[in-house]
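Tutorial, part two.
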Amino acid sequence: MTEKPWNEGQTDTRRARLWQRQEEIEETLQKNLNHTLVTAVHLLVNQPSAEQRLSEQNFHNKHKIFVHRINALPKYRDFFDYVNDRLQNQLVVMMNMDIYIGEGFEMVNKTFLVKSNKAYVLTRHGRLEKKCNMGGKRGYCGANYIRSHDAYIFVLTQPLDESVLAELDYDMNVLGAENRLIWVLRNRVKKRLLNPCEHLKTYHNHCVDIHGSVRPRIDKGGYKGGGVEPSGL
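Running the prediction step on this input gives:
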């Protein structure tokens, strides 16, 4: 977080604050590594220093980490390229780096998702974290839902073709990024989408208030209407 390109164009570029955000991201990673149902954590990184730091950290369950280098800040296409190449026919949970999974994931049934051609697009929760209380914030699962989605659970039984991947070739930290992804999953990948966020709980760990300072909107035109209301499984 403290080096280019991550430290550029942020709302706060003070090194001490960026290090606090780095620590928060690593806390989140450790929570995912600790989860008994997580068998592997695939990390896409674009900096040699990030790869080196991961190798130096004494994470519990570190054997679950698989690092993949990319050449620039990650786009949704990078993740789906990775799934195309390495995770075909596997249950994938794709999340932002400040999200960790919580209760209910023993209810996820891979066979059901494949046979019903469904995918889950989850809205996050908040609770007391090390640096602050993330509970009760706008955009969370339940009464505060505002089309915010941070975790995607799916199985790709066949690779996405180039025309679909091209529609995912955009930065992840722009406004409307999730809505456009949901539009693509629904209309191009032809998945039936559900948001069982009350049953499958994910948590947001973002106490250090640093965000990208320039965030254009990406879900204009035909990509509108990407929300999925909370539902059952």
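The mean pLDDT is 90. In part three we will examine how such features are distributed along the chain.
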